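Predict the 3D structure for this chain.
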Amino acid sequence: MALSPQESRLPRSASANSEAVQRPAWDSPVVPPVNAWRIICRRTGGSISRATFYRWLASGRVFSIRLGHRIYIPLAEVENVVKLCRCGERI
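Done. Predicted structure below.
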């Protein structure tokens, strides 16, 4: 029996009807880095410089998707960064 593409991404222990399964970051809407940085600055009080955010992207600390020469950040990852910054954790 072949699995659909969506079912094949689910962990083996989770069923397709389980509500505990989170969507992967690549399934959420994406935004360009400038917009992601602006969202993070507004929700954290502007405590992150643009250069720092781009360093995080270059080092892989913030998950990003490259399509050709463009870079996109999933909104789920932006929310994760906001949560980490608000908790005072280092990224």
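The CA atoms of residues 42 and 74 lie 17 Å apart.
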